[in-house]
């Protein structure tokens, strides 16, 4: 290890101002700090600092995504073989899915990180760790059949126009991973919605082995085929077609547990989103005007990306509400709107994505109300001015 | 006995708590007053180098308010002031005698004195400078009258001295100090007491309102105690003092001298033998540092690890500091530090496996453990900030230099020390204390 350290110190001057590779300073810093925590010591303020940093935080989120990713890979293989009418071992299913999913991950990371490194260099900043998570989230909310160039375009759009133009990680208003999906959803709808993209290698023309369609639970529901919605246990464990990472609620809940224990994900937001979803479903159950409204709350929560959104998207600390009570309002409204959009607008089966993006817009407003409330409380405490009181 | 329970906060598990043993009085060679220990103080010298002074003889006054004088803590010979950039005075040293001679201020009967007598004796003797005010965290003007005076009798910061131990033989002086201070306030003297103790020497104090508190750091901070009893509104002023300084003021009235001795705790993982030592305010620390040092690669902090200031081997004890902390300098590279399980790394979040071992104590060092980033995480400061104030929004208002917002978000109620834990926990390594100090100065200049 000493040799490596020496080597890094020896090549460092080349990357500093005036050096041969000064244009790669941010890139060099990113790799150096990736290998070694810097030796910088405190100069002012508290002399000791917590061991946590943004790298550690982001890595924990990536780890929390791993159960969903691993299950997702296996499920890609499983769904393919099921559609083909064959059955292979768990490992073979996984290997199949691994080969199908890995390129999407690589494209997402390469596109996003390249843009991050370039913009960090333009600003002479250190490269931010935020994309480590975004780059993993994007593949997990894509259908497996998504063309790689579409992934690249969507990622590039999200990183440039949603993150970098606002100033990079920590400054963005919308969740970049969700914008990548929304962009693809509106720009290339056929690649990401409908019945075709969910099973690897299948498109509309090849459909039809044993009458199996690749439709997701949500598209069954949207088209009124309630009887085709998979069983609750299939929905929970995730033996269904869908976006790569969203199918298994069990895997998502394992991830949620990691986020909650480490204190990185906001339990408050997760519970609020679920509460909001349940409330809206129960209201619909009471109305019961059509079959979609009659779906029970449990099935609603288990369908589509609701749980994935609640655990990994709504909790994004940058784009969510940041005040303690604001988080509750923010979460509940996400849950409510997700179900609302789903049920009322069959053109947008995935209400969760739109609902979170909508609430990203309103998060600063919610916080503003909370802040004003805090200010009002302080004003109320002021001693009453009694100068102008008339004597009785 | 009603106890106010504070839930938010964090007790940092730092090794090296001082054993409850007091070494004898340490006679210093030199004593110095550092203008940098104060806010808004620019010295104008009263004495010249070579002059002989007694303990209590004025050394310099504050150019911004010449009624505030600073007196010598010991008797001896005034040395040439040590100057920094632009000839700014950094230290005003006095070569100390081996026996301390005191200026005589005369024994007083506090009950027959009025506020003006007390005020003039405190300013004349220089003990006025031990009073600090909220807002702005500085020495109050000599003609100001506070709404209330608060004294926190316990310090919850890491390895802080235990005033129940330090002052156990000085309760009469402490009481005299309270009696004198009580006459200066429009309201009352409020004492914050540690509610977790059974035998609290301060529970017998008269002429003051007692409040009991229980909870992690910063429960011992006076701002927290004010906030949870009678919060500060715009336009109100609160004074606060350290309990040892209250006893010192008491002694001024009872014995008629400025006795600048105080007991400090020598603490920290790198202190050879953590215990208590009786010293003089502003004493040169070299002999103490040399006797306590285990190794060379060290940071010596006058004060605690959260709010103290680092001192060099030739440095002096801070004016308001009652503790020395010895920790290792953290200027090392750590290979893949962010990826390791981290059994030996304490964190307030549970991202390292050290959270599985509650109650364990750690050697902390001065490494940042990461790079500076824009604020990403939310809800971190709130966990260690027991005020009904939104810390992140206050910090952002300061960064935006929005005076009106700072006021309305409660900057009058806090001091930088209350944000020390925010400094500590911040994932993005934001210098919150420094930002708050700058914000207060901005506000003070705007208001004056």
Task: Describe, in plain words, how this protein is organized in 3D.
- The complex is a heterodimer of chains A (392) and B (448).
- Chain A has 392 residues and is mainly alpha-helical.
- Chain A has 16 helices and one strand.
- Chain A has helices at residues 2-11, 25-35, 54-84, 90-123, 130-140, 148-163, 176-187, 189-192, 217-222, 232-237, 249-262, 267-287, 297-302, 306-313, 324-344, 351-381, and one strand spanning 36-37.
- The relative contact order of chain A is 0.09.
- Mean pLDDT of chain A is 87; it is low at 204-211 and 386-392.
- By secondary structure, chain B is of the alpha/beta class.
- Helix content of chain B is 20%, strand content 22%.
- Chain B is built from ten helices and 21 strands.
- Chain B has a six-stranded mixed β-sheet. Chain B has a six-stranded mixed β-sheet with strand order 2-17-16-20-18-19, covered by helices on one side. In chain B, strands 3, 5, 8, 9 and 10 form a five-stranded antiparallel β-sheet that branches.
- The longest helix of chain B has 16 residues, at 432-447.
- Chain B starts with a strand and ends with a helix.
- Strand 1 (36-37) of chain A pairs antiparallel with strand 21 (334-335) of chain B.
What's a concise summary of this model?
By secondary structure, chain A is mainly alpha-helical.
**Relative helix content of chain A:** 55-70%
Q: How many angstroms does the end-to-end distance of chain B come to?
A: 42 Å
In this structure, how is the largest beta sheet of chain A organized? none
Q: What is the N-to-C succession of helices and strands of chain A?
A: HHEHHHHHHHHHHHHHH
Total count of strands of chain A: 1
Give the helix level of chain B as a range of percent: 10-25%
**Number of β-strand runs of chain B:** 21
Hey, roughly how much beta strand do the residues of chain A contain?
A: under 5%
For the terminal residues of chain A, how far apart are their CA atoms?
Answer: 86 Å
The helix-and-strand class of chain B reads alpha/beta
Q: What share of the residues of chain B does DSSP label as strand, in percent?
A: 15-25%
> Low-confidence parts of chain B, pLDDT < 50 over ≥5 residues?
none
Give the total of domains of chain A: 1
The unreliable regions of chain A are: 204-211, 386-392
Principal-axes shape call of chain B: globular
Overall geometry of chain A: globular
The overall pLDDT of chain A, averaged over residues, is 87
Radius of gyration of chain A: 24 Å
- Major sheet details of chain B: 6 strands, mixed
What structural class results from the helix and strand content of chain A? mainly alpha
């Amino acid at each position: 290890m000493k040799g490596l350290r020496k080597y890094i110190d020896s090549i460092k001057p080349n990357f500093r101002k005036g050096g041969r590779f000064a244009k790669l300073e941010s890139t060099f810093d990113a790799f150096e700090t990736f290998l070694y925590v810097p030796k910088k010591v405190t100069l002012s303020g508290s002399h000791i600092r917590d061991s946590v940093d943004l790298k550690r935080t982001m890595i924990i989120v990536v780890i929390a995504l791993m159960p969903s990713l691993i299950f997702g890979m296996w499920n890609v293989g499983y769904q393919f073989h099921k559609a083909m009418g064959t059955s292979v071992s768990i490992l073979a299913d996984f290997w199949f899915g691994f080969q199908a999913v890995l390129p999407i991950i690589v494209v997402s990371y390469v596109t996003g990180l390249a843009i991050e490194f370039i913009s960090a260099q333009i600003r002479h900043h250190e490269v931010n760790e935020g994309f480590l998570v975004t780059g993993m989230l994007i593949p997990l909310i894509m259908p497996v059949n998504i063309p790689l160039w579409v992934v690249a375009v969507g990622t590039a759009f999200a990183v440039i126009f949603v993150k970098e133009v606002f100033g990079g990680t920590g400054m963005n208003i919308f969740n970049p991973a969700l914008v990548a999906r929304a962009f693809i959803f509106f720009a290339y709808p056929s690649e990401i919605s409908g019945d075709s993209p969910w099973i690897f290698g299948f498109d509309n023309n090849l459909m039809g082995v044993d009458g199996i369609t690749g439709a997701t639970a949500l598209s069954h529901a949207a088209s009124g085929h309630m009887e085709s919605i998979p069983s609750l246990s299939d929905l929970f464990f995730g033996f269904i077609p869908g976006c790569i990472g969203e199918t298994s609620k069990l895997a998502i809940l394992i991830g949620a547990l990691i986020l909650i224990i480490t204190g990185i994900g906001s339990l408050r937001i997760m519970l609020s989103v679920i509460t909001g979803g349940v409330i809206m479903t129960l209201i619909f159950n009471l109305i019961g005007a059509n079959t979609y409204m009659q779906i029970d709350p449990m099935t609603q929560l288990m369908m589509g990306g609701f749980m994935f959104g609640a655990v990994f998207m709504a909790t994004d600390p940058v784009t969510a509400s940041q005040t303690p009570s604001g988080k509750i309002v923010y979460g509940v409204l996400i849950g409510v709107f997700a179900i609302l959009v789903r049920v009322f607008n069959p053109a947008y089966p995935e209400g969760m994505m739109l609902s979170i993006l909508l609430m990203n817009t309103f998060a600063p407003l919610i916080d503003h109300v909370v802040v004003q409330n805090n200010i009002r409380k302080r004003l109320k405490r002021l001693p009453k001015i009694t100068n102008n009181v008339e004597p009785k | 006995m009603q106890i106010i329970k504070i839930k938010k906060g964090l007790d940092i598990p730092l090794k090296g708590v001082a054993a409850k043993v007091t070494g004898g009085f340490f006679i210093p060679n030199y004593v110095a007053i550092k203008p940098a220990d104060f806010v808004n103080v620019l010295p104008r010298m009263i004495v010249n180098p070579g002059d002989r002074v007694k303990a209590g003889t004025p050394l310099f006054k504050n150019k911004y308010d010449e009624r505030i004088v600073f007196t010598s803590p010991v008797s001896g010979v005034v040395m040439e002031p040590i100057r920094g950039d632009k000839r700014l005075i950094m230290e005003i040293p006095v070569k100390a005698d081996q026996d301390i001679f005191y200026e005589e201020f005369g024994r007083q009967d506090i009950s027959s004195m009025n506020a003006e007598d007390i005020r003039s004796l405190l300013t004349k003797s220089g003990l006025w400078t031990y009073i600090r005010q909220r807002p702005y965290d500085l020495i109050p003007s000599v003609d100001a009258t506070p709404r209330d005076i608060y004294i926190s009798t316990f310090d919850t910061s890491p390895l802080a001295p235990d005033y129940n131990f330090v002052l156990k033989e000085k309760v009469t002086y402490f009481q005299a100090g309270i009696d004198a201070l009580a006459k200066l306030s429009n309201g009352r003297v409020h004492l914050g007491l540690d509610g977790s103790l059974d035998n609290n020497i301060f529970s017998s104090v008269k002429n003051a309102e007692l409040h009991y508190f229980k909870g992690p750091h910063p429960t011992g901070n006076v701002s927290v105690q004010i906030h949870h009893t009678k919060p500060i509104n715009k336009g109100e002023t609160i004074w606060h003092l350290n309990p040892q300084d209250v006893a010192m003021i008491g002694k001024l009235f009872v014995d008629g001298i400025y006795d600048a001795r105080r007991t400090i705790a020598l603490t920290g993982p790198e202190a050879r033998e953590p215990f208590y030592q009786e010293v003089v305010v502003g004493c040169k620390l070299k002999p103490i540092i040399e006797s306590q040092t285990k190794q060379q690669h060290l940071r010596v902090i006058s004060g605690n690890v959260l709010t103290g200031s680092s001192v060099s081997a030739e440095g002096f004890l801070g004016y308001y500091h009652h503790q020395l902390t010895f920790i290792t300098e953290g200027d090392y590279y750590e290979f893949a530090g962010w990826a390791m399980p981290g059994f030996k790394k304490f964190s307030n979040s549970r991202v390292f496996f050290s959270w599985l071992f509650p109650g364990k104590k750690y050697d902390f060092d001065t490494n940042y453990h990461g790079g500076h980033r824009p604020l990403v995480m939310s809800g971190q400061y709130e966990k260690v900030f027991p005020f009904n104030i939104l810390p992140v929004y206050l910090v952002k208002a300061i960064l935006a230099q929005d005076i009106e917002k700072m006021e309305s978000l409660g900057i009058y109620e806090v001091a930088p020390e209350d944000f020390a834990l925010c400094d500590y926990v911040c994932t993005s390594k934001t210098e919150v204390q420094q930002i708050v100090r700058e914000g207060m100065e901005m506000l003070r200049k705007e208001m004056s």
